[in-house]
Design goal:
Layout: H1 3-12, H2 22-31, E1 33-37, E2 42-44, E3 49-50, E4 52-58, E5 61-65, E6 68-73, E7 78-79, H3 81-85, E8 88-89, E9 93-96, E10 100-106, H4 107-116, H5 118-135
Antiparallel strand pairs: 1-10, 2-9, 3-8, 4-7, 4-10, 5-6, 5-9
Helix pairs in contact: 1-2, 4-5
Length: about 140
């Protein structure tokens, strides 16, 4: 499997990108860098400005907020979806439990893509809205 195919497979499995067409996923894959991270590496700190999105290819990561572990996540998880759309303070700290591999996209490059492919932004916003609704099933809008 080529690295490009591997990136596409990972992107297809991420809810925020699932349902996008092949060409759209290819354009996103071109923006993403693959990076290796060592155990103990802090990907993001709660309260610090965020400008990247991470997709976990391998490894295990702990997410904590205010010093309390929220959950652990591994391959197939996306982190920083809000930061890729709108830079702002991180809502949690994420630390590598073991060596891992990530796909990383930066805010600026991603927005350059959204300028020429607004249908990607529309899809992402719709997906995030669905996820927010699912968090509070009692809210009706």
């Amino acid at each position: 499997m080529s690295p490009k195919d591997s990136k596409l497979d990972h992107l297809k499995s991420i809810p925020i990108f699932a349902g996008l067409g092949g060409r759209q996923l290819e354009r996103i894959a071109q923006l993403m860098d693959e990076v290796d991270v060592p155990a103990g590496k802090v990907l993001m700190r709660q309260g610090e400005l965020g400008a990247e999105m991470f997709i976990i290819v391998s490894g295990s990561f702990t997410i904590d907020r205010n010093g309390n572990v929220i959950r652990e996540c591994g391959a197939g998880a996306a982190l920083g979806e809000l930061a890729i759309l709108s830079e702002g303070p991180r809502s949690a700290t994420v630390t590598a439990n073991e060596p891992g591999r990530l796909l990383v996209a930066g805010h600026r490059e991603f927005h350059e893509l959204l300028d020429v492919a607004p249908e990607i932004a529309k899809h992402m916003l719709e997906t995030l809205a669905q996820q927010l609704r699912a968090l509070d099933a009692d809210t009706v809008h």
